[in-house]
Structures are given as structure tokens and as C-alpha cells.
Amino acid sequence: MTVTFPADTATRAILAPGLEGIVAADTILSEVDGANGRLILRGRHIEDLAGHLTFEAALEFFWRGLLPMQQTRTTAEALATARLQAFATAVPVMRAAGPGLGIYERMRLGLSALCCDDAAEDSFAITGALPVLLAAASRIGTGEAPIAPSPTVASAEDLLRMLTGTAPTARAIAAIDRYLVTILDHGFNASTFTARVIASTGADMGSAVLGAMGALKGPLHGGAPGPVLDMLDAIGTPERAAGWISAALAKGERLMGFGHRIYRQRDPRADVLKAGLATLEAADGRVALAEVVELEAVAALARHKPNRPLNTNVEFYTAVLLEAAGIDRSLFTPLFATGRVAGWCAHVAEQRATGRLIRPGSRYVGPMPAA
Ligand code: COA
Hints:
Layout: E1 30-33, E2 38-41, E3 44-45, H1 55-63, H2 75-89, H3 91-96, H4 103-114, H5 123-141, H6 155-164, H7 170-182, H8 190-200, H9 205-216, H10 225-235, H11 241-250, H12 268-276, H13 286-304, H14 314-324, H15 332-354
Antiparallel strand pairs: 1-2, 2-3
Helix pairs in contact: 1-15, 2-5, 4-5, 5-6, 5-15, 6-7, 7-12, 7-14, 7-15, 8-9, 8-15, 9-15, 10-14, 11-13, 12-14
The chain binds coenzyme A.
Coenzyme A is lined by residues 18, 220, 224, 254-261, 305, 308, 310, 313-315.
């Protein structure tokens, strides 16, 4: 259908404060099918990608045709080079910044330092840097020296190694790869939309990624999984779940890890991540507790908001999986950025290829001048 707007498009008044139902672009990258609880990345179901591909292989699949691929070296080699470059250029700036910065803020500082030259337009340099920035920010925060990357291992393994200084298990590496691929891309979520808005102004890719990191931080987006574990800790035992959840809802609180703007079914990524738990050793009783909390929460939310389907979202099992893989909860949002950066870079490229300046209007409801 072709819609004809008045010549003065500012007179077009569609008020949608959260932009629900507004389609802002066509994309070949991912489809979030909320009605059917389905996620497709470039023609493949998320269930056929996560748990099957390494992060490196997923990049080759996801970026093809949009971002310059490596001709003379493998994706793994390009990312390894990027890790070394980030350690040399960004980590000294992060170390010099003093103790006051949080992990995420220190990562953003490192990315800013990296993106002041050609790296600002290099999707490999940016994507490869994130594991280094995460591990370094974490260690600087606890007063430990950052560990240099290894060019001979892949991103997931090197990330775990740089965090702890010890060789990770194959199961932990597989869990991180599964997680990073699961969260690679997800339609026009808030951080991706932010990246596209910034890219639409002609700004560099590094600026778009830095802006997207800001949007990801909030608890309604990428900041939810840490609070999921706080909730599980507060509940403590399965028999306390129903009472705790009812009390929280009665106080008007939101249950972290539930609800979604688009999904009206269970978020398919929840099961993809839950499947990853099968090979890990979670703390005693953790998975059983999570399963009871999930059942009770979904039932309580159905009673609480009978007209609004509220189901488990990606963050619930993100929290349980990453905890079982040995990741501290303070690193959950930084790790989300480490995978989603691949989606942001692809959307920047797509925005440049097919988009135009994103500049919605607003309706003025303030006072008018006297004359
Ligand atoms: N717990 C309790 N109530 C919830 C809820 C939750 N997790 N999610 C939504 N609701 C309620 C809202 O309070 C709202 O009630 P109201 O109409 O009385 O104001 C109603 O359901 C509709 O929610 P709405 O705010 O329109 O949903 P949204 O599309 O704007 O928000 C989320 C989607 C994800 C932000 C929201 O579900 C949420 O805050 N979830 C918890 C945080 C989370 O898990 N974030 C990670 C997302 S992947």
C-alpha cells in the first residue's frame, strides 16, 4: 500500500510514544515474530545457529554481503588481531582512568580510545575489541592487572582466559559461544535502533556502537539479567517463590526476565539458552529453583495482567546460564554488548546502504507565546 503524506510531513500526526507498531525500515538481518515466538537471522532459525556455530562462524554467516569480509585471513585471525590492537591502544587508557569507573563505563572509555582513527570504521576492530575491554575493565575494577589476549584461540575462549587467567573448560567455552550467537541480533530493539539513528546522521560506526551501548545498559533492555539473579537469591527456595512473586507484583514491581515488547509467546531464546545448561554444572538447586520461579511468575503475571501475555524472555535463562558458566553478574550487560556488537555493526552497514536520516517529529503541547 502506498501512503501519500502532505507535502509538509510535519503535519502528519501519528502519536506512538514507544513507537509500537511503527515499522521504520526493511531489514534482511533478523525477524522477530512475536505472534509465533520465532526468531530468524538471515533466513535461519535461531535454534539452528546457537549451540551449532562459534561466534566467529556466526559472524561470517551474519555479516556476509554487508560488511567487508576478510580475504587474506580467517575471521578468527582478524578478531585475534583486533584483540591485540585493543589491548595495546585501549587498555592503557582504561588503566589510567582511576578507580571510580564502573566496568561498563570503563569499556566505553576503551572503545572511545580505540575509535579515534581507522578502527572507528572497522567492524572487526570494534567487535574483536569488546572481549578485551570487558576482561580488562573487570580486572582493573578488582585491582588486578589485565591479561593480554592470545592470538591462537577464538573469542569465547580468550574472553574467559583473559578474565580469570586460567584455561577455561570446553563446556564453558561452548556456553559462551552459545550465548553470544543467541543474542547476536534481534530486530529493532532499543540499542540497535539507537545505532541506526546514529548511523543515519553519517556518524562513524564506533560512535553508533558507543551510543548503542548506552541504550543497552538500562534494566528494561540489557540490564535485566543481573537483577534476575538478585531475584532468585531473594526468593531462595522453591516453596517461597509464589509468595515472593505475589508480594512483588502487589508492590507494583516488574519481574525481571519476563515480558517483551514484541513477543506474545515465550521468547525462543529462553529455550536456546536453557538447553545450554544441560552440559554445565550449575550451583546445587539453582536450575530447579529457576524452573519453579519461572512457572510461578508466568502464572502470576497471567493473573496480574490477564489481557497482556507476559512470558519468559531471553534474560531469565541468560542469568542462569552465565552464572553456571562462571560469569559474575556484574559482567552480564557487558557480555551482552560483546555479542550484540555484531548486530549493531551489521545494522550500521544496512542503514548506510538503504536508510535515510531518521528524524521523527514530536507534538508540541507546551504553552504558546502570548502574541
Ligand atoms: N513484571 C510485571 N509487570 C510487567 C512486566 C513484568 N516483567 N512486564 C510488563 N508488565 C506490565 C507493565 O507494568 C504494564 O502494566 P500497566 O499497563 O499497568 O502499566 C503492562 O504489563 C504492559 O507492559 P508494557 O510496559 O507496555 O510492556 P513494554 O512492551 O513496554 O515492556 C519490557 C517490555 C521488557 C520492558 C517489560 O516487559 C519489562 O519491564 N520486563 C522486565 C524487564 C526485563 O526483563 N527486561 C528484559 C527485556 S528482554
